[in-house]
Structures are given as structure tokens and as C-alpha cells.
Amino acid sequence: MEVTATSIRPELARPRSAVLGGVCAGLARHLRRSEGGVRVAFIIVSFFGGAGILFYLWLWAFVPLERDSSGEGTGVPVSRRVPVAVVLVIAQVVLVASEIAGLVGGRDAVVNAALLGVIVAGGGAVAWSLLMDVADPGRSLAYGTAVRTASTALLLLAGIAALLSHTQGFNAALGLVAIVVAVGVLVAPRVVALWTSLLAERAGRARDEQRAEIAAHLHDSVLQTLALIQVRAGASSEVARIARAQERELRDWLFAADLPVRVDLATELREIAAAIELDFAVRIDIVTAGSALEQAPAAVVGAAREAMLNAARHAGGEVSVYVETTAESIDVFVRDRGAGVDMASLPDDRLGIRESIVGRMGRAGGTATVARGAGGVGTEVHLHLAGGATA
Amino acid sequence: MTSVVIVDDHSIFRSGLRAELDSALEVVGEAASVDEAVALIAELRPAVVLLDVHLPGGEGGGGAEVLRRSSALQGQVRFLALSVSDSAADVVGVIRAGARGYITKGSSGAEVSAAVAAVAAGDAVFSPRLAGFVLDAFGAVAGEQADRDDELDRLSAREQEVMRLIARGFSYKEVAAELFISVKTVETHVSAVLRKLQLSSRHELTVWAQQRKLL
Fold first, then answer.
1. Is there a single domain that holds both residue A29 and residue A139?
2. Contact B174 A326 (CB under 8 A)
3. ipTM value for the complex
4. Which backbone phi and psi does B125 adopt, to 5 degrees?
5. CA A27 remoteness from chain centre
6. pLDDT tier for residue B4 given thresholds of 50, 70 and 90
7. Where in the sequence is the domain holding A343, given as residue range(s)?
8. What angle do CA A80, A85, A91 make, to 5 degrees?
9. DSSP 3-state assignment of B193?
10. Could you tell me if A150 and A180 lie in one domain?
11. Domain check: are A238 and A292 in the same one?
12. Which of A3, A117, A376, B37 is most buried (most C-beta within 10 Å)?
């Protein structure tokens, strides 16, 4: 079946920016009539036993909100132009006034009707304020508080007036109900908040417990197995490297997930080392001493990375990195046990050491020494930058 | 032959380690919990106990509890801690309870064997990370230095040098060559540092221990 775009009626949906419920606007759009006409029709039909009002409420309940223009579900909040809560509070004022007038004039029927009205209007105002206005960006927090305070005060006033006058029976009962509703209104938001936070806390605790349980289990089984794999496979073999990377990932997830991410020199170097270990047959052991450095100088990080890469590329096996940060200086030692390099015989195109390590440290005002490791085995790169934490 | 008892609650790890150990070491027994370990060590009196830091049973104190409950034997039996993590937090507890050193479970069989031999000979086994922790905890990084050799709360200049080199990944032999001293002297310095680590009442260490209810 071929359907052209123009033949499709707009979807029956309530707009998110509405006068009251968005029913008239939505219906008008769907039926391609003017909004004003639809409104007038509703009002006229309302005179026939309130059919218009019932139909309005029915549509309000069952017609869905229009789809979010941002495409993220219910992201955009609904705003309503009519201040329903204020209207209800004004109705309360009028009803309280007529109640008092009825009490003074001794007309019980008026008092009863007015009291009932005050209770319904008051409950409605508070409910509207708590359920609708809270999510409405057009209504401030102070507005909600003012509405609820006024409404509660009027309820109390109506109830106390009914009880203090010498009326009997139904009047007194309604007065009591008004006071109870008022007290309920005062207490309800706090009870709801308390209940919600209690539920959230319980859920959070359950989550933490579960996480701790998983952590304990994984610590006991998986981490041990990964350690064993590393032992059996030989420290710098492919299998051991994979096991080591897995172990680190798991450990980070288990024990560090809740900690705020703090990027200091040690963390940065560890991350670099982890990345290098994935690419080369090497095990990089990083040891740190001294205060954690929040803002690691880029030159030191870059040069250290280059030194670790060189060690991984040309030596492999075990690489030891020692970082010492004091108030006066930063020292980084990168040591491998490979064949070693001779700076004098390095070809000029080996940019790695000359430029990325020595040159970079020099430009940052530090020094870099590349020398044979202890006992003539391997290479040790020593980066030194004065200034420490202030650099 | 050096007699060894392996204490670890994972049978896979125990058998793996057993297979990897040097032939000069004889594994005389295995234990899987705190209570089992204490009983077995008292009965067998091995030269070295390879002790996992995390152990079930007893009062929940793990490896440190085994050390405390076996303290009467610590003259004859030496303890080498094994930890799956090499965080100082895990290790300092067992060191202060009397272990002569620690290695990570990721160490190769040859490394473990060498460490067991060193501990059996009365030496201390320091990993680079433990050395780094010691430098931090004793204020060496901040420039503190002991005035007298017998001072417990600070490291002497030589001890600091040795610790720094170990932290940089030097073996004892390499440290000795670098500082123009004998390997025996290096071992003496390391043992002295271990003793300080165990006995010092330095603020950082006691605070650290109290937080973990080790005191």
C-alpha cells in the first residue's frame, strides 16, 4: 500500500510545552483544526453533564506525550503555562472565606461543602506541586514551597475554624480531616525523601557487597591463576605478557574503580608501561618513592616513555623503572639488561635517544644520561629535572 | 638440602611452585590455612617457610597471624612471604610480623629458589618495590638521614644508597660492584634495614600498622 506523506495525519500526541495538559493542542494538530476551535468545543460540551471535562481527562490520561525532539526518550521536561497550583490555592482562599461566612451565619450545609472543597483543592494543589511542578523548568523551587506552605496554612485554618466554632457532627469530622491532611502534607515530602534515600542506600549497599564478594572470589581464584601462568610461562614470554596485562586490568577494575582518577607521574608512567608491555616481549617494573606529583612535566613523561620504548624494543626481558620525586627534583631511572648502547657509535638517524630523550630533557632544563648498566650489563637512562613539584 | 614448607590456600599454586623450585630445595610439607600452617611448622621445623600473605582460617590475620603464632620458632625457621600483589600494604604487615623478605607470585621458579636460598642463609630479600617503600617510609626521599648507625627510625647514608640501587633494579652483586663494597656488606646493610623496618616505631610505620590493626 502506497501512502504519501501528506495523507498521514500527525500523530495524536500531547506537546511537551502545554497550556494545561496539552490535550487541546494535540487534538487540534491531529484533526487539523485550530486550537481555539477545539478549546471552545470542549468548553461547550462541558456544559452537558461535564462530558467535555471527562473527555479531556480521559484523553490526558491515555494520549502519550509527543516524542522527544532530542531523541533520548523522556529527556525534555514538560512545561505547563497555567499555574494550576496557584489557581487551586486561590480556590482554597475563596472556600475558606465562604466556610467562615457559613460558620458565622450558622449554615451547616455551606460549611460542609466549603470544607470538602478546601480539602480537595488543598490536596490537589500540594499533589500538583509535588508531582507536576517539580519537573517543570518554568516553576522554581521557591514557587513550589510557597504554594505548599499557603495550601497547608489554609487547610489548618479551615480545620481549626471548624473545630473551634460550636458546630457538631459532620462539620467537626471534616475539620479534623482538614487538619490531618494538612499535617500529612507537611510530613509527606520528608517521608518520601527519607524512603527514597533509604531504598537508594540499600541498593547501594547491596551493590557494594556484591562487588566485594566478586572481588574476593576473583582475587582468590583468577588472580592466583594468572600469577601461576606467569610463573610457568617464563617472565617475558607471550603468554605471560597476556596474563600480566589481564591481571593488571582485573586488578584496576577490582580495587581502583571507586577511587577518583588522579593522574600523577607514577600513574602516567604505569599506563605507558602497560601499553608498551602489550606490544613488546618485556616486563616493566615501576617503583616509585616520594610525594605524588599531580602535574607531571610533559618533558619527563615523554622522555621516560621514549626510554622505556627503547628498552622494550632493543633489550626486552626485564626493565626496571625507578621514580623518585622530592620537593627539589624529579629523578627517573630506566634500566634494561640488553646488549647496551654506545652513545658515541650511534648513527645520527637514531633520533630516539639523541632527540627524544637527551634533547627533550635539555630543553626542559633538565639532564638525561644514557650509560651502561651496572656491571656493564644493559643500559640505564637517568632523567633528572630540578624544580620537582613546582616544575 | 634446604627443607621448605609451602603455605598457600591454592593447591594449583602450591603444586606449580613445587614443580618449579630448584632441586637443592626439598619441599617437606604443604599447608592451606593459618591453623594448618602453624601446626605443620611446629611439627616439621623447616629451614624456610614460603608463606602466602592472604590465607584463610585462624582469626583472619592471614600470613601475619601465622608469623605471630610461630614466633617462638623464628630463630630456627625463616619465613619468606609470597604475595599475589606487590603492594607495600600487603607486605609490610608480614615483614613487621617477622618475615625475612617477600617476593611476588609472578616471580620465576629460579627467582623464588634464589630468594629461598638467601633467606635460608640468614639474608633478607628485598624487592625493588619494598626498597622504594622503605625509602619513602623512613623519610629518605625527604632528605632525612640517621646520625648514628643504631638509630632505628632513619636510614644511614649507606643504607639509603643500597636501597636506592635495589629500587632501581640492581641485584646485590650489582649493588656491591657499584658501591665498591663486598656482597656480604650489601647483605649486612639490607638486613639492617629489614631490622629497622621490623622494629622501628617511626610515625609513618606505626600509623600505617595501626590503621590495619597490626599493632
1. no
2. no
3. 0.81
4. -110, 115
5. 36
6. very high
7. 260-386
8. 130
9. helix
10. yes
11. no
12. B37
* Span A1-41, pLDDT tens digits: 445 555 677 788 888 888 888 888 888 888 888 888 888 98
**In this structure, is residue A71 part of a structural domain?**
no
B214, pLDDT greater than 50: no
Angstrom distance (rounded) from CA A230 to CA A247: 10
In terms of domains, do A250 and A348 share one? Answer: no
Last residue of a domain, one of A172, A187, A208: A208
- By C-alpha distance, the chain B residue nearest A332 is B168
Cα B76 from Cα B49, distance rounded (Å)? 11
Kindly give, in sequence order, each residue whose CB lies less than 8 Å from that of residue A271, ignoring residues fewer than 6 positions away.
Answer: none
Residues A248 and A266 in one domain: no
Q: Which residue of B has its CA nearest to A336?
A: B169
Count of domains in chain A?
4
For the CA atoms of B128, B130, B136, B140, the dihedral, rounded to the nearest 10 degrees, stands at -70
pLDDT at residue B205 in the model: 66
Question: Are A181 and A269 in the same domain?
Answer: no
The stretch A202-212 carries a mean pLDDT of 85
| Contacts with B140 from chain A: Cβ below 8 Å | 289
Domain identity same for A51 and A151: no
Say whether pLDDT at A260 is over 60. Answer: no
CA distance A200 to A190: 15
Give the pTM. 0.60
Helix then strand count (H, E) for chain B reads: 10, 5
pLDDT at A391: 39
Neighbours of A145 (CB within 10 A): 12
Q: Searching chain B, which residue's CA lies closest to the CA of residue A288? A: B132
User: Is residue A232 less than 8 Å (CB to CB) from chain B?
Assistant: yes
User: How many whole angstroms separate alpha carbon A318 and alpha carbon A336?
Assistant: 6
Residue that the C-alpha cell 620504548 belongs to: A309
Domain contains A79: no
Q: Is residue A44 part of a domain?
A: yes
Cell numbers that stand for A237 in this block? 614470554
Phi, psi for residue B81 in degrees, rounded to 5:
-80, 140
Beta-carbon separation of A374 and B105 below 8 A: no
Q: Tell me, yes or no, whether A72 lies in a domain.
A: no
By CB neighbour count within 10 A (0-12 exposed, 13-18 middle, 19+ buried), where does A298 fall?
Answer: exposed
Sign for the pseudo-dihedral over CA of B185, B190, B195, B197: positive
Q: How large a percentage of chain B has pLDDT more than 70?
A: 90
Percent pLDDT > 90 in chain A is 2
Q: Which amino acid is at A348?
A: D
At A257, the pLDDT band (50, 70, 90 cuts) reads: low
pLDDT range class, residue A389, cuts 50, 70, 90? very low
- Between CA A386 and CA B163 the distance in angstroms is 22
